Amino acid sequence: MQGIRDGIMPGRQDSRALMRGAVGVVVTIVVVAGPRTATPQGPERPRLETNQGYVEEATRTSGLAIKDGLAVFKYVFESLPDRVKVYPTENYFYIRFMHNGTPYAGNMRLEPVSRDQGKLHFGYYPDLTPWNDELKGDVFEVLDAAKGVTVEKLDRLAYRVSYGGKSVVFELNDLSQVKPPATALGPEEKYLGPIFDESAVRFFFVYNPKLKIFHYILDETVKAADELIPVKRSDRILVGRRTGFAFYRDDRLDRKILIGVYEGNSRINNYFDGPFDQLPENFIEGEELRRAILEADPSVKGKIDRLGNYLDGDGRYLIHPYMLYRKESDLHVFQQCATDRKVPAANYYKCFVMASEDPDDSHPRPLALTRAKKKK
Question: Residue range 123-134: average pLDDT?
């Protein structure tokens, strides 16, 4: 991976991640969506999962034609209720199932441009594991009327998908009214939009034009779907028990900045791989995102669209300011930077943007601790 330049990885998102989005960690069939479309809240009892159910699913004999994309789509589509909620803000509806002892993961995606052209993206693949993270046996289809699949727009964020006599309404997540409180945004920062990550954690996507860096700020206008625990050596650094997301409690503002994602989750691209692949594409206004990316990295001028997608169709510009950490102690560098008297006060927020995500770099460091290259 190339190093980060001013808070952005100057490469492209992994093409396999773009095809499949992120995946989960439970390997039985899971179709969570149901008739309820509101965010799960209230005094409900937790859902119980048993080893019996897992064993019986893993040992079940399946006759599904697993290499036939349309046949697998038919199975998935017929298993859905009549209405589902798509929570992630890049419009991925994730699915999982077990086929003859092999867990599969995938998604259906109503991409912003092609959905209004009557197209639905569908892909699946044998699930990745820490001991086997190579994508093999993946199948990807763009489904439309020519293949018997119709996509009808009902409202700005609601679409009816029909196939084989069945229809399912896909309700996209409407976060248009979500705004950060004054305490969560610095005077020099620009709010680009809300993010609902597939991990169920919400963020504010923020750009700093002066420093030319991006941040993912924890949205605390809602209850965080995780338990944040201080690391041993600092009460400023908090790590989510469920997600492994690491945050720094800002010394200047009442907010928490995402500073780390567990490297193992990123490698197998599961639900906890970080919000880089859930940009608020339904809520980005005009040219705001493209303008911010070009300010930070002029080298991609003429190569990306308004949502950061490469014009040649090969991925999306990767905005990845946080660290991929392997152990808790890796995160201490953020506090070291934030309290370093040699760091100019004006560069404080560069302490929370990584200067490099090279996996071979044994000493990753924040942008504020790097020396600018001298011009020849």
Answer: 92
State the SS3 of the chain: CCCCECCEEEEECCHHHHHHCCECCCCCCECCCCCCCCCCCCCCCCCCCCHHHHHHHHCCCCCCCCCCHHHHHHHHHHHCCCEEEECCCCCEEEEEEEECCEEEEEEEECCCCHHHHCCEEEEEEECCECCECCCCCCEEEEECHHHCCEEEEEECCEEEEEECCEEEEEEECCCCCCCCCHHHCCCCCEEEEEEECCCCCEEEEEEECCCCEEEEEECCCCCCCCCEEEECCEEEEEEECCCCCEEEECCCCCCEEEEEEEHHHHHCCECCCCHHHCCCCCCCCCCHHHHHHHHHCHHHCCCECCCCEECCCCCEEECCCCEEECCHHHHHHHHHHHCCCCCCHHHHHHHHCECCCCCCCCCCCEHHHCCCCCCC
Per-residue pLDDT averaged across 340-366, rounded?
A: 83
Q: What is the pLDDT of residue 364?
A: 78
- Is the pLDDT at 201 greater than 70? The verdict is yes
Q: Give the mean pLDDT of 317-327.
A: 95
In three-state secondary structure terms, 114 is helix
pTM of the entire predicted model? 0.87
Which DSSP category does 187 fall into?
Answer: T
Q: 234-287, pLDDT tens digit by residue?
A: 999 999 999 999 999 999 999 999 999 999 999 998 999 999 999 999 999 999
